[in-house]
Design goal:
- With about 290 residues, the chain is α/β, with parallel strands linked by helices.
- It is built from 9 helices and 10 strands.
- It has 2 domains: about 130 residues, D-Maltodextrin-Binding Protein, domain 2 (3-Layer(aba) Sandwich), CATH 3.40.190; about 120 residues, Periplasmic binding protein-like II (D-Maltodextrin-Binding Protein, domain 2), CATH 3.40.190.10.
- Strands 2-1-3-10-4 form a 5-stranded mixed β-sheet, with helices on both faces. A 5-stranded mixed β-sheet has the order 7-6-8-5-9.
- Helix 2 links the parallel strand 1 and strand 2.
């Protein structure tokens, strides 16, 4: 009887182990994708869709975890310091270029091996659809006439969208303090605050505000790029409105820098197939 019970115990342990780790070549268990920004924003949406694509390609779960906080430090640091085994990917964003210069963390791009840059999106100014401002110039005039009264957001202090906003103010000859920047954990909570009328404007990408723009709740005053963004053809560039200023954010998947070559090759081969697919192209158009 004891021998039979012992056999059952070993069998149960083997079955549990098989459920967690299938053995064999990488990947053989669930993979985590760390998103440094809040749920509902552009980075989160791209992270989750890439998780779906990678899961279909590599036949293991890819689970997105939103590691927010520290103006991007928390998520990027968690990803950079993870075990270099390919089971933790990070959706890196342009903030990674700036965090160490701001003395917030020693983590920078050298701590990652970039697998693939997935998209680049220019910053844009988003306001309520019933706003009296029709152009970027109208908003500049309102800021100049009411210094310190308007409130804006889009991300954490010092994030890419904040940098884009501050650069535009400087280009327009306005002090950065002319608009009060309210730090948030990303575009999604910023847009929620704009809808609740707790903000006057948001700086983020147009795709991040797409649903609210298409729903007639918000509108884009201008986009900080050389060309208009496809799907938002009625939103003029800043340059078309007489402001020579542009800034583009980027998102890329990465792993810790000392991840084994064979793991990197597996991931990069999968990503190449994904980005060349019609499904990926269709997703990026939405």
């Amino acid at each position: 009887m004891c021998k039979f019970a012992s056999t059952l115990t070993l069998l149960a342990a083997a079955l549990l182990s098989w459920g967690c780790d299938r053995g064999g070549a990488y990947p053989n268990r669930p993979v985590t994708i760390i998103c440094p920004w809040s749920a509902g924003g552009g980075t989160d949406g791209l992270s989750r869709q890439m998780g779906i694509f990678l899961e279909e390609k590599l036949n293991v779960p890819f689970n997105v975890i939103n590691e927010t906080g520290g103006e991007g430090v928390t998520g990027h640091s968690t990803g950079a310091l993870a075990a270099p085994d390919g089971y933790t990917l990070t959706m890196m964003t342009a903030e990674l270029n700036m965090l160490h210069w701001r003395k917030m963390t020693p983590i920078d791009c050298s701590h990652f091996r970039t697998l693939m840059v997935l998209n680049c999106e220019p910053a844009a100014i988003i306001v309520p659809a019933d706003s009296p401002w029709k152009t970027v110039g109208d908003l500049e005039d309102a800021i100049g006439e009411n210094p310190g009264k308007l409130k804006a957001s889009g991300t954490a202090k010092g994030g890419t969208w904040h940098l884009a906003f501050a650069g535009w103010l400087a280009k327009a000859g306005l002090p950065i303090s002319a608009v009060k920047w309210i730090p948030t954990r990303g575009a999604s909570p910023s847009l929620q605050e704009l809808m609740a009328k707790n903000l006057d404007l948001v700086c983020c990408s147009l795709p991040e505000a797409q649903a609210l723009i298409q729903g007639g709740n918000l509108k884009g005053l201008g986009v900080m790029s050389d060309e208009r963004v496809k799907g938002f053809d009625d939103v003029k560039t800043f340059k078309e409105q007489g402001v020579d200023w542009s800034l583009v954010g980027w998102r890329a998947l990465g792993v810790p820098s000392d991840t084994p070559v064979e793991v990197i090759d597996t991931l990069m081969n999968a990503l190449r197939d994904i980005v060349e697919s019609e499904e990926f192209a269709s997703f990026m158009k939405t």
